[in-house]
């Protein structure tokens, strides 16, 4: 398609043509109406003039007879710009007047006629004039013709017609030129957008549509498409990250698992050794499954699919429930877990995911904030009452229990409070070693386990899941300094059952971990 | 969701831990031959009768014909998917309890499965002990009556007055501990897994990374078993817990 052909096919140009036609028709109609009215007005004037003359002349005839009439006609007909007069006998022989020649038969018709004529003073003039005439039968057999030249009317008509032609020509030329110009401008922007989208389709997701800055409809469209691209890029990035992480962090334990089985096949000698190897294998694969599930859940939360499961639920109930679930564990680890929450704090979201996010935060706090293993003297240890001790070694962690310091155990506080704006803050504060400010942003990333936590079990996905859940709800996960310790804050908008998704803008921020 | 494994017992070992059960007739609708054969074999080992259908249509026909105690239905099946199989059964008035097995483990998938008429939902991969425990609860639920007072040996739980007594001495329990004991006693003699407890007592369907349930059980055990020679709350290695009159 040639550039011009492309131009003519654009919607803008077609629209221009339609408007052009409409305007030209309107102009033509207006001028035609004007012309018609002018013509009517001029004709009316002529008729009035001729009527007045005829009545004047017939009066003179009645008063002064034919002589007086002839005198008057001669007098009037000699003046420049005069009307046309002709007085004939009943037989049609001219008596007097200023008309040289006339279309034959006119004199026989009484009343109004339009006719060609020639003046008596220029009988040879090539141009035939036209006139509007009226014939009156005078008593005594004379016939009187009075008329007026129509040249004036014709000239006016010509002026209007030529004005009409010109104005239509100008409208068409200006319209086409303007349309051409506007279309080319729009086409240029659309072409630029098309180029960008083609680049994006070819795989360069970082491309963005150009914005002219005029805030017009194309700009708004480009703006929205850019936001969409932003989201798609974030999703693709998440997907890529997931696959990378799956490749890296699932293959490592898989390799370990395979090696162990291989080794068992090679070296195990009796059933108990096989059994031990198999039990280890199941343990390892359970860990793998947990990691895999967490990854899937994060990916799902990040892609926004979990929006289906949103309902209105009570965040205070979540805080109490999760607190209650973890309280015995915290107690066993020598920590006090306290929940502070209002009567109710309704919010809209995915209850299951928010519970899990909060559970992860509490789990982390318990794991990392347990008092540093101290080495109490034997007497101290003996003095410590073993609470909930004889439980058949369910978890076998009784030995972790440190002695209460001055009767006070370190606290973990789970809170559900109203935040700025329409937010609910679910916070978990501990008094453990905390995370250095520089590491906080990194801590939220998948699989990152900071140096000091390497020894603890876990997939390293707890905080990233909480982060993904926060972003799904249009909120954020903040890591703050609890002085001492770490305070993790799930800031979630209360939200409504509005079907519009949480602001996509919120998910553009990859990780937010403001420093105190 | 996985259960933390503390060594995996063989089905035969599980059998030893359980009270003698009446054999159940199970229908497994699963298109993966290996997985299905493993299940059939494992169920036979613990004394149940398991039959197999390898696609949805066949499964539906068999389920309508035969008398089964529980159906185990894979969600993705050739010809007719698992949810449709259950839906059709329910619309025909067949209310055989059905457990859905699925690789889709998210909360909303679960909700969809239960809404379609399933009675329980177990994401793949699962452990056999978890599946067995759930199947037995489902089979029991069918004929089970809701008693007002649960009794196991000299332990007594009154669901109306919320009183718990052991050897006629009242035991004070926290509300959650009461519900935990209530659930265990309702399924007395049956293995109850950690995930089942988390789902039914706490209404959470996620995997807490740490074994929080174990600590709750320890506390409960210290309240009901401490000081008594006969232990009622047992740990079933590799599977879960069980309340049982252990004489």
Describe this structure in words.
The complex is a heterodimer of chains A (516) and B (247). Chain A has ten helices and 13 strands. In chain A, 52% of the residues lie in helices and 16% in strands. Chain A is α+β, with helices and mostly antiparallel strands and 516 residues long. Chain A has three domains: 3-155, Beta-Lactamase; 213-303, Orthogonal Bundle (Helix Hairpins); 309-372 and 407-516, Heat Shock Protein 90. In chain A, the strands form three sheets. A six-stranded antiparallel sheet of chain A has the order 2-1-6-5-4-3. Chain A has a five-stranded mixed sheet with strand order 8-10-11-13-12, covered by helices on one side. In chain A, strands 7-9 form a two-stranded antiparallel sheet. By secondary structure, chain B is α/β, with parallel strands linked by helices. Chain B has two domains: 11-143, Response regulator (Rossmann fold, 3-Layer(aba) Sandwich); 174-243, Arc Repressor Mutant, subunit A. Helices cover 40% and strands 20% of the residues of chain B. In chain B, strand 8 (163-166) and strand 9 (169-171) form a beta hairpin. Chain B is elongated, with a radius of gyration of 19 Å. The relative contact order of chain B is 0.14.
């Amino acid at each position: 398609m040639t550039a011009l052909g492309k131009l003519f096919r654009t919607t803008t140009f077609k629209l221009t043509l339609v408007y052009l036609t409409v305007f030209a028709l309107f102009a033509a109609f207006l001028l035609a109406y004007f012309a018609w009215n002018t013509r009517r007005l001029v004709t009316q004037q002529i008729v009035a003039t001729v009527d007045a003359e005829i009545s004047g002349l017939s009066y003179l005839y009645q008063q002064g007879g034919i002589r007086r009439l002839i005198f008057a006609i001669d007098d009037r007909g000699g003046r420049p710009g005069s009307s046309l007069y002709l007085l004939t006998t009943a037989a049609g022989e001219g008596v007097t007047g200023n008309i040289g020649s006339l279309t034959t038969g006119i004199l026989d018709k009484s009343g109004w006629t339009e006719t060609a004529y020639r003046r008596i003073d220029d009988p040879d003039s090539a141009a035939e004039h036209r006139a509007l005439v009226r014939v009156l039968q005078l008593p005594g057999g004379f016939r009187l013709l009075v008329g007026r030249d129509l040249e004036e009317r014709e000239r006016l008509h010509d002026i209007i017609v030529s004005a009409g032609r010109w104005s239509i020509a100008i409208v068409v030329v200006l319209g086409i030129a303007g349309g051409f110009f506007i279309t080319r401008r729009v086409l240029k922007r659309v072409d630029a957008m098309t180029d960008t989208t083609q680049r994006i389709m070819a795989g360069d997701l970082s491309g963005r549509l150009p914005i002219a800055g005029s805030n017009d409809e194309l700009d708004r469209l480009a703006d929205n498409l850019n936001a969409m691209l932003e989201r798609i890029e974030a999703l693709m990035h998440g997907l890529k990250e997931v696959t990378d992480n799956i490749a890296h962090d699932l293959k490592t334990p898989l390799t370990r698992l395979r090696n162990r089985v291989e080794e068992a096949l090679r070296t195990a000698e009796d059933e108990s050794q096989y059994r031990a190897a198999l039990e280890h294998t199941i343990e390892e694969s359970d860990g793998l499954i947990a990691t895999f599930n967490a990854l899937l859940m994060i990916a799902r939360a990040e892609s926004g699919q979990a929006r289906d499961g949103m309902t209105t639920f009570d965040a205070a109930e979540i805080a109490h429930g999760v607190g209650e679930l973890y309280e015995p564990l915290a107690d066993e680890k020598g920590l006090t877990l306290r929940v502070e929450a209002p009567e109710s704090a309704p919010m809209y979201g995915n209850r299951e995911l928010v519970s899990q996010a909060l559970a992860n935060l509490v789990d982390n706090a318990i794991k990392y904030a347990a008092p540093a293993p101290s080495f109490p003297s034997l007497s101290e240890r003996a003095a410590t009452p073993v609470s909930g001790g004889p439980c058949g070694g369910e978890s076998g962690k009784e030995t972790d229990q440190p002695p209460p310091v001055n009767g006070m155990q370190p606290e973990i506080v789970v809170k559900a409070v109203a935040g700025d704006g329409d937010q609910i803050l679910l916070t978990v504060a501990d008094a453990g070693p905390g995370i250095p400010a520089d590491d906080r942003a990194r801590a939220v990333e998948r699989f990152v386990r900071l140096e000091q936590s390497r020894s603890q079990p876990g997939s390293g996905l707890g905080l990233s899941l909480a982060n993904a859940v926060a972003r799904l709800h249009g909120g954020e996960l903040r890591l703050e300094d609890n002085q001492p310790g770490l305070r993790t804050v799930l800031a979630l908008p209360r939200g409504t059952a509005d079907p519009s998704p949480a602001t996509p803008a919120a998910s553009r921020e990859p990780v937010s971990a403001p420093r105190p | 969701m996985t259960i933390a494994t503390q060594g995996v017992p063989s089905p035969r070992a599980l059998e030893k831990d359980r009270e003698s059960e009446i054999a159940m007739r199970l229908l497994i609708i699963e298109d993966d031959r290996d997985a299905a054969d493993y299940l059939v074999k494992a169920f036979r080992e613990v004394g149940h009768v398991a039959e197999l259908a390898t696609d949805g249509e066949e499964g539906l026909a068999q389920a309508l014909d035969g008398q089964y105690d529980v159906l185990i239905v894979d969600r993705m099946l050739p010809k007719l998917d698992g949810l449709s199989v259950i839906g059709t059964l329910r619309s025909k008035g067949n209310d055989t309890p059905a457990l859905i097995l699925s690789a889709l483990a998210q909360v909303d998938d679960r909700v969809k499965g239960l809404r379609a008429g399933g009675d329980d939902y177990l994401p793949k991969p699962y452990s056999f002990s978890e599946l067995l425990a759930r199947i037995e609860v489902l089979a029991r639920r069918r004929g089970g009556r809701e008693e007002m007072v649960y009794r196991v040996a000299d332990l007594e739980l009154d669901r109306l007055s919320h009183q718990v007594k052991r050897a006629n001495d009242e035991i004070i329990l926290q509300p959650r501990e009461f519900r935990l004991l209530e659930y265990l006693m309702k399924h007395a003699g049956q293995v109850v897994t950690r995930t089942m407890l988390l789902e039914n007592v706490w209404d959470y369907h996620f995997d807490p990374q740490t074994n929080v349930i174990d600590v709750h059980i320890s506390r409960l055990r210290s309240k009901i078993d401490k000081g008594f020679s006969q232990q009622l709350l047992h740990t079933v290695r590799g599977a879960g817990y069980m309340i049982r009159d252990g004489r």
